[in-house]
Specification:
337 residues; Rossmann fold; 2 domains; five-stranded mixed beta sheet; four-stranded parallel beta sheet; 9 strands; globular
């Protein structure tokens, strides 16, 4: 399997070089995600990286190891992101005209790090770069971390090409339509009448102090959920946060488990979770939603389901193409030039 994947990558690299000889410009896209350990032995150093080099407690490491063990020892985050990168590169070059595109993958907290990707970008001599975090909604704490990592890595690598950072893209019409269609498909699969299904949008919680700091994260989530619900024809829906860390300080609420309890108290029998703050199957989906939230719902006799994630689906790749090629529904800032 590994040899076949490497052979495919070498073939694509050869195609890139051949294509560059026929074009007048070379542009790139840096797709970024949070990162994930590929083996249980990597959980502790991965956790240490998240904490900025501080040592996590043995208890915290053990808890995270058990979560990864519960989903099979790892998640497909890196594999999916690489697949999206390959498909997006093909899509960009299909209509690229006299410009050739290359798409790179960089992770915030594990290999391949953003800095590693930037080194490859500099070596390839791009004329222009678009940096795109695979997180639809902006927060200074989360999305801003990607921006800072790109700027820091570019400075370290003496990178000088014009670089555009897409800090928010939830309003892209194709992304909105994609999530709306996922909701409609899930409602069909549920065999329940739509009015009898509680639609619960979720996104990653963050420390509550971001509100005092003027972060628009909650407002972007509310706007995005309303747009998706309207596109899906959903008149009634709820929103909750998920995956809050245990830091001893308040995090944004309501939490998904609180919302499920509220649905049960109100006599609800079906809940459809829509984790629209995420785009692929990783720990926050496979464990926090599919195991923890599902168990909580079933314990309360509430039938649980969730939408399929965008992952590397053609409609998601097309949405990313639209964001990169036209900037539709995106907020873009320049990092250099």
């Amino acid at each position: 399997m590994c040899s076949r994947v490497e052979a495919q990558r070498r073939a694509r690299a050869s195609e890139r070089e051949e294509r560059r000889g026929d074009v007048s410009g070379l542009k790139g896209v840096l797709l970024m995600a949070y990162g994930t350990p590929e083996h249980l032995s990597e959980v502790e150093p991965y956790y240490r990286d998240i904490l900025g080099g501080r040592e996590p407690s043995p208890e915290a490491v053990a808890t995270l190891v058990e979560r990864y063990r519960a989903v099979g020892g790892g998640t497909p985050l890196l594999e999916i992101t690489r697949s999206v990168a390959d498909l997006l590169e093909q899509r960009l070059n299909r209509d690229g005209g006299d410009v050739s595109w290359r798409v790179y993958v960089g992770m915030k907290h594990w290999h391949p790090y953003i800095a590693e990707a930037v080194k490859s970008i500099v070596a390839d001599g791009l004329d222009e770069l678009v940096a795109l975090p695979l997180a639809p909604h902006y927060s200074r704490m989360s999305t801003g971390g990607y921006r800072d990592a790109v700027k820091r890595s570019m400075a370290q690598a003496s990178s000088s090409q014009p670089t555009w950072f897409i800090e928010s893209w939830h309003a892209n019409p194709q992304f909105t339509a994609l999530i709306a269609q996922r909701i409609r498909d899930a409602l069909v699969r549920s065999n329940a009448a739509p009015p009898d299904v509680e639609v619960l949008f979720t996104a990653h919680s963050l420390p509550a102090r971001i509100i005092d700091e003027g972060d628009r994260y909650p407002e972007e989530l509310a706007e995005s959920a309303a747009a998706v619900a309207q596109a899906a024809g959903i008149a009634s829906w709820r929103f909750a946060y998920q995956s809050a860390a245990k830091t001893g300080t308040p995090w944004l609420r309501p939490d998904i488990l609180e919302s499920i309890k509220q649905i049960a108290r109100e006599g609800g029998k079906n809940v459809l979770v829509v984790p629209f703050g995420f785009v692929c199957d990783h720990l926050e989906i496979l464990f926090d939603v599919d195991i923890t939230a599902k168990r909580a719902a079933e314990d309360l006799s509430v039938r649980f389901s969730r939408i399929e994630m965008p992952n590397n689906s053609p409609d998601f790749v097309e949405a990313l193409y639209d964001i990169v090629a036209s900037g539709a529904g995106a907020r873009v800032v320049g990092l250099s030039g």
